[in-house]
Amino acid sequence: MVVEIIAVGTELLLGGTANTDARDISQKLSELGLHVYFHTVVGDNPGRLTQALRIAKERSDILITTGGLGPTYDDLTKETIAACFGKKLVRHEEIWTRIQAYFDGIHRPLTPNNERQAFLPEGCVVFQNDWGTAPGCAFETGGKHVLMLPGPPRECLSMFEHCARPYLEKFSKESIVSRQVRIFGMGEAAVEYKLRAYMERQENPTVAPYAKEGEVMLRVTARAATPEAARAMTEPVVEELCRVLGDVVYGVDVDSLEARVLTLLRERGKTLALAESCTGGLIAGRLTEIPGASLVFRGGAVAYSDAAKTAMLGVSERLLGLYGAVSEPVALAMARGALVQMNADVAVAVTGLAGPDGDGSGTAPGTVCLALAARDAEPVVHTLLLGADRRRVRVAASGHALDMVRRHLLGL
Known about the structure:
With 412 residues, the protein is an alpha/beta fold. The chain has three domains: 2-171, MoaB/Mog-like domain (Molybdenum Cofactor Biosythetic Enzyme, Chain A, 3-Layer(aba) Sandwich); 175-252, Alpha-Beta Plaits, CATH 3.30.70.2860; 257-410, CinA-like (Maf protein), CATH 3.90.950. It contains 14 helices and 17 strands. It has helices at 10-14, 20-31, 46-59, 77-84, 93-106, 153-168, 188-201, 227-245, 257-268, 282-288, 306-313, 317-323, 328-341, 390-410; strands spanning 2-8, 35-42, 62-66, 89-91, 119-121, 125-127, 136-141, 144-149, 175-183, 206-212, 215-224, 249-252, 272-276, 297-302, 346-352, 367-374, 377-385. It has a six-stranded mixed sheet, sandwiched between helices. Strands 14-13-15-16-17 form a five-stranded mixed sheet, sandwiched between helices. A hairpin with a 2-residue loop joins strand 10 (206-212) and strand 11 (215-224). The longest helix is centred in the last third of the chain and has 21 residues, at 390-410. The chain starts with a strand and ends with a helix. The model has no long low-confidence stretch (mean pLDDT 92).
């Protein structure tokens, strides 16, 4: 069956809000073996939404809309869909009671326009909203299935999982399982070149490369009658990819490089400290986004100036004067200082010139020095040339620092 997702909201067209609903729903639908052929985005305009719905009716079997179910004057998704499909809107007393109870529970006044949310197409399957006020729904007419979900991402995804997924499962004829092979230290072009012949031979499972920020991901996708059978089909493919690519693969089915590092630290009973200059706390930010990081992450020093490197990490003024802040000796002194100051097992330091301008010292913009110090191993120091794009330099440097920790922990 052909699925189309229609996202409603002028803010999506203006670029102020990313259309994450369509992305998330598409991923969930692929798990059910349902194929999304079209993504449509339309503003809060009944005429243009009607036009989009008429096109979707002709080419798609399942229409899923997001957004436009709220109480304000521009929330016209229900009214427009009902008119387009010849459905009458009726008030659902149970929904209205729940909306009233919701506002009582959060001690906010209930305005009259909230009653609009209790009106849904006659004969529909109601999707109860336990995460907000606007309910969703589904109905079938003329062989077409229409599902309406709220726009706020938390409400949309939760309602899909608990309400829309059970409704759609009856249409699923196969299961699709995707695995992720995560790579750091090899670019997309190099990965594709190394695996091109292998990928061209694959039909089921398929292998596709995706460039992520600072890394590459290979998606291995298999189709079978059951999720278990599909996953079993991916196993030999994933093993072969890991064998061919070697230690640039940092994980399979892991969320991120920082998540992999935290897992390795926990498994090995080690703690980590950071000393950051040009990354300005970016590495610490990546780590602390993950719940449970405090179990193994001691902390980090953002020592941006030379004076801060001396005061916070004990880097000598003589060393800074002799080699300059962007140098391997200073990076190593920073790492050793963090190791001692934060009483950690492993410490990594980053100092560099993020650019795009030079600093008058002759150091090329994009030069980054990284050092790792550990209580149970010899230090490791690298110098990288990462170009002159300031954001790219900082993101890449943070990734290389995390990868240094990963390699140390794995003995690579």
